[in-house]
Amino acid sequence: LLTAISVERCLGVLWPFWCRCHRPKLLSAVTCSLLWALACVLAGLVYYVCDLGHSDHCWMVLGTLCFLNFFFFIPFMVLSNVILFIKLRRSSWQHHQVRLYTVIFLTVFFFLLFGIPLSVQIFLNYFIYINFVFEICLLLASVNSSMNPIIYVLVGSYRKCRFRGSVKVALQRVFEDR
Where are the transmembrane segments (predicted)? Predict the structure, then answer.
């Protein structure tokens, strides 16, 4: 989903008129639905093959997941965020959406910092298993999962002397579209 959000925002910045006039209205909903379906199929496949004792093909399933992550999703996410960052640094007309782009950048940054080690560790478990490292990677993944609401509230209340108002107001400030 982070990849889809990053690519969609990048396309919106690179070709704003196409996105406003010609982009199908249901594109985001269809894309998210397909990504959730893919995630459910892959999670079910991992559970069936790796956790239920069909370990002969577990290596192939985890290898496919790692391939998708490291050679498809992550490069598109990083590339679209780099393009988005460069484009927004050069243009001054998009200042009203700085909060939204800040949220996207921070979410992707913390995902790369805290979420990727677990994927790497799961892949490396088939070569060498170190319980302590796996637990640290699980802790980092948990930090990554709990980081998004904190990012939303902090970015939503940015430039205030202190946090005032409710979390709902901060979230509305982050995601308001002018």
Answer: 26-49, 61-86, 98-120, 126-155
